[in-house]
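Person: Please comment on this record:
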Amino acid sequence: MSNFINRRSAVTGLVAATAVPLWSATARGSAIARGASTTRTGTAADAAALEVLDDTARNLLQLFPESATSLGVDRGTDARLRRRLSDRSAAGQRAIAARLRRDLAKIEAIDPKPLSHSVKTSIEVVRSAYATSLEGFALPYGDITVGGWRNTPYVVIQNVGAYLDVPRFLDSDHPIDSPPDAEAYLERLRQYPLQLDGELERVRAARDMGLIPPAFLLDKTLAQLKLSAKSASEGGVLVDSLLRRTQGMRGQWERDARAIVTGEVIPALNRQINEIEAARKSATDDAGMWARPHGEQFYRWALKASTTTSMTPDEVHALGFEELERLHSQMDVIMRGLGFNSGSVGERMQAIAKDPRYQFAEGDAGRAEIMAFIDARLRWIRKQMPRAFHALVDPNMEVKRLPPEEEPGAPTAYGGAGSIDGRIPGKFWINLRTTGLHSRFALADLAFHESIPGHIWQGEYTHEMPRIRQLLAFNAYSEGWALYAQQLADELGAYENDPVGRLGYLQAISFRACRLVVDTGIHAKRWTREQGVRFFVERNGSNPLEVASEVDRYCSWPGQACGYKVGHSEINRQRDLARSKLGARFDVRDFNDTVLRGGNVPLDVLGSNVAEYVGSRSEEHTSELQSRFGNLVCRLLLEKK
């Protein structure tokens, strides 16, 4: 999943140590309550365009068979995809780019004029995703996604690589309900070392052209690779997952899996370790892309891919400061009301964070407190959803702890929707390496962002759409919606009697404004890693434990962190436009439905969807006035007679 990875496939493939189920998976339960899907109705032009879109999706799944499993569509004629992994070699990259070029040409040949708005939107979504990805594949190096959010110059790093993706995916997403499923697991396990060696080839090629990651990222990567190799030598998840799920099935499952792991996987992991150790000898602590060959070019493209705009690094940097000033002014008012009158916003937030009232206990007791806290807040927010949406979903989801071996290089949390058929639940992954990562005044906001009405809620709406739309995502929309979801929770009263909780919410939004400053600072303005960490802590009062891993993530995923606030600001701008044009006829539930049911789109397409909604409401109002006016004229004429 190195090149094609949307948020669903990224997060449904992780191992769990702790789980809190929220809703039963016995029924899909995600059908939208109001309104039917229109993807298979309409004109002959729509039908022809949808057929092209279906072909495009089939072609993409051939390249990324893991996604077919994560979506739950590797059955019937596509059952063979359950036995395959994607090709991560240089030849595999060339095949992806060639396929994208051919399919983009077919998409661009479609005349948009006779199409319905929904089909036209799907055509534009594919065109935008493929064109942007092809620009990335034309760069001299990198791990480029197709309609995803994890673009990186580094093929193997602390949060990127088959050594992370494949064990998670096989354990969490690959189903084992029968001996053929177990055989398919073994076949994928045999392909895992081929993926590792395919990546190794690309890592060596990048080093030959002078691309060496920062030393501090390589140190993390080495530690995690060695942990993966050690785990594999002991059987680990690769063997244990198969053994656990084949109890009662006839076959030599453990013997075969262990032979593959010891004979093929461990040597391939060691080859990657040797390469990373060689690169480490000449690495520096220069954090940003400015220090890498072709770095400015890569970063400008990464910003475009992440924000779906043409904003320059300077423009993004300035926006971050503007948003930070606006948000901190709101925080200042609340803090003064609580008696925190002196010091910067950051200093006062640090003082609040040290208050024992807002801390969880240490160790497993605190981890249990965190899981119970999340469960309670999500049960509350679920009850509020009819106040924010007409079109409702009922997500099949669970809250899970990230595997401990991955927690040092992972963010505090992330989440995404499950498979279309409900067999794989949506997951809210929480990092619990230490309970100090989380506070009682900020954890509810994090839960709203990752699950309801954030990523998991939003992902459920894609199940109505053409398959290609279920495979493509845009970072600015995905993360912009999740921030908007935090805002909706606030507007629904999540912090009505909790001013410190509202501070946590505002600090979290401010955190995303800081990201605009820090990401561009590191990659375009030659900031050090330490400068980035210090900016978060001093300006926003952010948790140093959280921030260190965050800044490392910006170093390995240039531009990705900028999509959040850019997308959030645009959704609010569109809401303000709709409200100003519709006046008393504006209903926030209609707006929210429009944003979600239009699907995951680039920001310019989002604007088009909102404009369509505003236009339809205006036409309804005009028709109503004409009807009323006509009735009045008739009545007056009758009275005159």
